[in-house]
């Protein structure tokens, strides 16, 4: 299941968010060698992990196996403040546009070949379910150009914002990817079920007065 962590419920996920930050560090610093992100405590946290960020955690058995972060395009985000050179046109901004960042999956749960792993499919399905329920229909992504065809095959409508450029030693292209219920249906078809992937929000416990 995908759990959505926001400022309203962050206190319920403190230990799991610690796992998420350490997963980010293992993937982006130790694997990808993005040493600018290295932290002595092994937790990858940046200036965008603030009160405007939405964190999505794939949790199984109390373990965070996958993670992604959503940032509103109406606030500072990676494309606007860190990688503006990837956008050769007008910066996409709107309440219905959010940026998808820091996607990562534990190595043992990643895809092999062209097929999305169950964790990857569930993370993408979580974005689409959340977007359809929240009025978000487009995401900004900075990604390897090899992902372009895969997203189209998943029924995202993808529009490059510029040409690929070298970032952190690899080719990266910025795109917008729009989605609708057909995208969700395609992901469900590939997954083999139509079950909702977003967990129900955690409810606060009300203690009876003694």
Automatic annotation (TrEMBL):
Keyword terms, alphabetized: Acyltransferase, Autoinducer synthesis, Quorum sensing, S-adenosyl-L-methionine, Transferase
PROSITE patterns: AUTOINDUCER_SYNTH_2 (PS51187)
Catalytic activity as recorded in UniProt: a fatty acyl-[ACP] + S-adenosyl-L-methionine = an N-acyl-L-homoserine lactone + S-methyl-5'-thioadenosine + holo-[ACP] + H(+)
EC number: 2.3.1.184
GO molecular function, one term: acyltransferase activity
Cross-referenced InterPro entries: Acyl_CoA_acyltransferase, Autoind_synthase
Annotated signal peptide: none
Family: Belongs to the autoinducer synthase family.
Protein name: Acyl-homoserine-lactone synthase
């Amino acid at each position: 299941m995908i759990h959505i962590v926001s400022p309203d419920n962050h206190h319920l996920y403190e230990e799991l968010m610690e796992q998420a930050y350490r997963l980010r560090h293992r993937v982006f610093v130790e694997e990808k060698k993005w040493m600018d992100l290295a932290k002595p405590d092994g937790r990858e946290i940046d200036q965008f992990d603030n009160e405007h960020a939405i964190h999505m955690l794939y949790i199984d058995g109390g373990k965070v196996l996958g993670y992604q972060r959503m940032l509103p395009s109406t606030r500072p985000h990676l494309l606007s403040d860190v990688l503006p050179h990837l956008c050769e046109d007008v910066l996409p901004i709107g309440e219905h546009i959010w940026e998808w960042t820091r996607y990562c999956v534990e190595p043992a749960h990643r895809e092999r070949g062209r097929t999305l792993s169950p964790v990857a499919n569930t993370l993408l399905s979580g974005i689409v379910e959340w977007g359809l329920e929240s009025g978000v229909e487009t995401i900004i992504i900075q990604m390897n150009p090899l992902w372009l065809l895969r997203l189209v095959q998943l029924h995202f409508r993808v529009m490059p914002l510029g040409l690929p450029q070298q970032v952190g030693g690899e080719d990266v292209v910025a795109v917008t990817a729009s989605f609708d219920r057909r995208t969700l249906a395609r992901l469900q078809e590939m997954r083999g079920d139509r079950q909702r992937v977003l967990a129900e929000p955690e409810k606060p416990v009300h203690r009876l007065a003694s």
